[in-house]
Amino acid sequence: MDLSVVIPCYNEEESLPRLVEVLREVLPPLATDFEVILVDDGSRDGTLDLLRATAEADPRFRYLALSRNFGKEPAMLAGLSWARGERVAILDADLQHPPQLLAEMLPRLDEGYHQVVARRTRADDPVVRTFLSRAYYRLINRLIEVRLEDGVGDFRVLTRPAVDALLSLGENNRFSKGLFAWIGFPTAVVDYENVSREAGATKWRMRDLFNYGIDGVVSFNHRPLRLAVWFGALMTVVAIGYAAWVLVDAIVNGNGAPGYVTTICAVVGFGGVQMIVLGVIGEYLGRIYVESKRRPIFLLRESSAGPHDTPVTIPLGPDRLAR
Ligand code: UDP
Ligand code: MG
Fold first, then answer.
1. Ligand closest in space to the Cα of 15
2. Would you say the C-alpha torsion 158, 160, 163, 165 has a positive or negative sign?
3. 319 CA to centre of ligand 1 in angstroms
4. Does the domain at residues 3-206+295-322 carry the CATH identifier 3.90.550.10?
5. N or C: which end of the chain has fewer CB within 10 A?
6. Which residue CA neighbors atom 13 of ligand 1 most closely?
7. Residue 85, burial from CB neighbour count under 10 angstroms (0-12, 13-18, 19+)
8. Hey, whose CA ends up nearest to atom 20 of ligand 1?
9. Over the stretch 42-96, which tens digit does the pLDDT of each residue have?
10. Residue of 72, 97, 209, 298 to mutate, ligand 1, most atoms within 8 A of C-beta
11. Cβ proximity of 94 and 197 under 8 Å
């Protein structure tokens, strides 16, 4: 198999017909043979019915259905672990990742690159969001040891060795942007004009973006724990200094301790610091808890290979399902 195209779909019944149409047109000239792997991430609309019908009508389209909504990262992983291609592309279902761009991306793999990433311009994003994400990437690149780039997402093509490297990472908490960067390999970037969604609605809310931001920092190292230690130490020094000053002031100048304001400030201030530090520790503890359960990252309920009476999971790593 020359090319696999992996597409996670969650409530995408409005985008799918057009997507399939575009892929049928765009893919044949790009590969000697290809397969499209559509992954239904527990959609509640007619997505799965559409996938069944599509796979039935055209065997180049295969599908997987997860047992519930696991999120985009697990859906992507399910698709990747099922892909048989020597080259694998990952696309969104909503045509925001124009499949036409693959014509520009795929040839770059022949130049010796193992990953080709599409980077979108932020031309018509809201100003505030652009500003926030620029600031975030500047900060996060100081904090973590892999390099993350603004505007770069999951729209990319990978060679077989890169896909296998990705599948060999067994963590449950998958911050895919970081994982793609972590596996390394020579990577090329192709720019494209940002496209807005053709149909349906985005499932991202502002809150999700913030949580995604925290994931980015915490899933890649424990530097925030170190920061917490420094912060705590700094506050302790400030408190001791202040106490010494009040004491000296009382002895030398005969001033009494300046009342309850200081007490309240100290109590509230330290309370805040302690909560922050506990929160940081909790983030890591939660992750350890999740990882230590060693649960599968997704469960399948059905695929174009047939229905599954009991949910199954595709083992990751070298003993994966026969391709
Ligand atoms: N998606 C998914 N599971 C989810 C949420 C989204 O598989 O829980 C898929 C969705 O169908 C789409 C892609 O992930 O193909 C990107 O989602 P969306 O367009 O909502 O995100 P945005 O483009 O706004 O970042
Ligand atoms: Mg989208």
1. 1
2. negative
3. 29
4. yes
5. C
6. 92
7. buried
8. 202
9. 999 889 999 999 998 998 999 999 989 988 889 999 999 888 899 999 999 988 8
10. 72
11. yes
